[in-house]
Amino acid sequence: MPLVERYGGRKVTDRALPGARRTAAETDTSTGANYQRTRGAAAEAAGNAFGGTLERIGVAEYARIQQAERDRADDVALLEAENSLARFEQKALYDPQTGALGVKGKAAMDLPNQIDEAYTTHAGDIEKGLHTDRRREAFAKVKAQHYQNITATVQRHVFGQMQEYEAGELKAYVENKQSLAVANAQDPRRVQIELHSAIDALTKSAPRLGLGPEQLQAQIENVQSATHVGVINELLASGSTKSARIYFEEARGQISGDAIARVEAALKEGTTRQAAQEATDKIVAKGGTLTEQRAAAKAIEDPDVRQATLQAIEHEHDVKRAVEAEDNKARVQAAYNLVDKTHDVRSIAPADWAALDGGTKNAIRDYVAQLAKGTPRTTDVETFYGLMSKAGDDPESFAKENLLKYKAQLDDADFQQLTSLQLSLKKGERTADNDRLEGVRTNKEIIDGTLAQYGYQTTESKQKPAEKRAIAELQRMLDRRVEQASALLKGKKPTNTEIQQMLDGILAAKRPGKGYNFYNILPFGQPFQNPDRRLIDLGPEDIPAIDRQQIESQLRHDGMPVTDETVLDAYIEHEIRK
Predict the structure, then answer these.
(1) I need a surface site. Which of 372, 520, 522, 541 has the fewest CB within 10 A?
(2) Looking at the structure, do residues 448 and 501 belong to the same domain, yes or no?
C-alpha cells in the first residue's frame, strides 16, 4: 500500500540561496496574515452596511416591504386561481362541442347537478394548491362569486329549454287529441272526451309557459273550432251528411267565423253529392241506354244535383265499359288458349263464342286456319304499321286496344313487340319498345316528306288500300336497313341525313333488267310499260327455286325464321340492291 508523505515542517527556509542576493524582507502577504485580516475587515464592513440600512429605513418600513411582497405573491396566486375558474366556465358552458349551453330539450334538465359537481371538484383541486390561509380565504370569495354566475347562466338555459320542451309536448298532445276526436267522429261522446283532455292540458300548462288569460282563451277557441271542423269534414267524407249537419248546428257557437263559411260550403257539396248518388243509383238500376239515362238525369230540378248526377251516370258508364273490355279481353285470351291446344273453334264454349264480336270470331278462324296449315304466322305490314302509327299518334287509345284481335295478322315477334309497347305505355315506362316506336315514327316522317315531293298522297285517310300497302312495304324495308345500320354502329342510331340517304337508295334502285326507278313500283307512280309484275306485287311463288334455296340457307345460318314472308323480303331486298 503506498504511503503519503507528511508535509512536516516548513520546507521553504529563510536561509539564503547560495550565491543569491536578498532584495526584500518577509511581508504579511508572503506569510498569509494579510488575507485573514482582509476577510475580517470585509465581514465587518458588510455588517456595518446592513445595520446602516436598517438604521436608515427603519424596522417598520422593512416589515412593510416584506408584507407588500407577500401580498403580491398572494395576488398572483389568486389571479392564477381565477384564470383556472374562467377556463372551466368557458369549456363547461360555452364549448361548441361539449358546453352545457349546447344541450337542448329534455336532456338539459340534469345540467345544474352536472355543472355543480364538476365545479366543486375543479375548485377543490385549485384550493389544494393554495398554501396559506390568507390565499384560501380570498379564493373562497372568488369561488362563491363564480359559482353564482355559472349557476345563474345554467339555470336560465335550463328554464328556456324546459319552456320549449313543454311547449312542444303540449302542442303534440293537443294535436293527438284532436286527431283522435276526428277519427271517432261517429262517436260524439268520444269526441267530447278528447276535446276536454286537450283543453285541460292547455289550462294546466298555460301559467308555466307565461300565457295570460286572454292568450289561453284564444288557444282554447282555436282548438275547439279546428276539432269541430275536422269532425264535420270526416262525417261528410264518410257519407254521413245528415249527421254532419246536426253536429254543425250543435257546435256552431264554437266554430270561428272564417271557418263557418267553409263548413257551410262543404255541407252543401256533401248534400248535393248524396242527392246525386241516390238519383244515379235509381236511374242506373232501371237500365236503358246512356242517352236514356242522361235524359232522366236532366229532369232533376236542382241544377247542382242535376249536373252531379249527369257526371256520375257518365262515370258509371265508363266504368262499365272498362269492365266489359277487361272481361272481353280475358274471354278472347281464353279462346286463343283453347284453339292453340285444339286447333278447333268448336272447343270454345257456345256461350263464350256467342259473346265474341264478329271481327274477333273471324280473326280466330283465320288463326286456326294458319295452325291447321302448320306454317308460322306472318305479319301483315299494313296492320303492324297501322298499330305502330296509332301508338305514336294516339297512345291513350292504343293502350286500350285489344291486340288479340290482330293475333292472326301478326307473327309472334311483332305481336309480342306491340304487346310490350302497350304495357310500357300503360305504365308510363321508358323501354326499348318506346325507342323503336320513335324510330318508326321518324322513318315514317322522312318517307312522307320524300313522297310528298313527288306529289303522292300521304294522308292515310285519303289513300287507297293498295297505296297503304305499298307505303307500309316501303317503310318495312327502310326500318330494316336502319336497324342493320344501328347494329353495325353498336346501337348508335343513324342520323336523319343517313336515313334519308338509305331511303333515296331504295327509291333509286333499278328493277332487274328494267330501266324504271323503284318508286315506280308504287301504284300511284308512273305505270310500268311492261307486263312484268312490280316488286311489291311479287309473291313467294314468283321466287326462282334456286334463289329460294340460297335465301333459306342464309336465313338459317343467320338464325332467322324461314317463312314465305322472310324469304320474299330477302328476295326483294336482294333484287333492289342489284
Answers:
(1) 541
(2) yes
Q: What angle is formed at CA 61 by the lines to CA 60 and CA 62, rounded to 5 degrees? A: 90
If asked whether residues 493 and 518 sit together in one domain, one would say yes
Domain count, the chain: 3
Whether residue 147 has pLDDT greater than 90 = yes
Q: How far apart are CA 530 and CA 544, in angstroms?
A: 20
- Is 334 strand, coil or helix? helix
Based on the fold, state whether residues 485 and 545 are members of the same structural domain: no
Whether the pLDDT of residue 511 is over 60: the answer is: no
Positive or negative: CA dihedral 273, 276, 280, 281: positive
**C-alpha distances in Å from residue 538, one per residue of 39, 238, 554, 567:** 147, 68, 20, 12
Q: If 0-12 CB within 10 Å is exposed, 13-18 middle and 19+ buried, where does residue 304 land?
A: middle
Same domain, 67 and 140: yes
* Average pLDDT value for residue range 223-230: 94
Give 540's contacts (C-beta < 8 A, 6+ positions apart): 564, 567, 568
Q: Which of 119, 135, 164 is the last residue of a domain?
A: 164
Domain of 575, in residue numbers: 538-578
Residue 341, in any domain of the structure:
no
| 350 domain residue, yes or no | no
Q: Are residues 505 and 544 in the same domain?
A: no
Mean pLDDT of 192-214: 93
Cβ(162)–Cβ(108) under 8 Å?
yes
Same domain, 521 and 467: yes
Q: Which three cell numbers stand for residue 244?
A: 254532419
DSSP secondary-structure letter at 302? S
Report if residue 383 sits inside a domain: no
Q: Is residue 421 part of a domain?
A: no
Whether pLDDT at 578 is above 70: no
Residue-averaged pLDDT of the chain: 79
Instruction: Report pLDDT digits (tens) over 314-364.
Output: 898 888 888 887 888 888 888 888 888 888 888 888 888 888 888 888 888
Are residues 518 and 546 located together in one domain of the fold?
no
pLDDT at 177: 94
Are residue 84 and residue 108 in the same domain, yes or no? yes
Per-residue model confidence (pLDDT) at position 181 = 93
pTM strictly above 0.85: no
Tell me the pLDDT tens digit for each residue of 46-91.
555 555 555 555 677 777 887 788 888 888 888 998 899 999 999 9
Of 141, 164, 187, which residue sits at a domain end? 164
The alpha carbon of residue 320 and the mean position of all alpha carbons in its chain are separated, in whole angstroms, by 37
pLDDT for position 523: 44
Pick from 156, 178, 175: nearest CA to 167: 175
CA distance 227 to 216: 17
For the chain, the distance separating the N- and C-terminal CA atoms, rounded to the nearest angstrom, is: 134
Residue 368 C-alpha cell reads as 286456326
- Using DSSP, state whether 430 is helix, strand or coil: coil
Alpha-carbon distance values, 519 to 286, 475, 545 (Å): 61, 13, 27
| Cβ 205 vs Cβ 238: under 8 Å | no
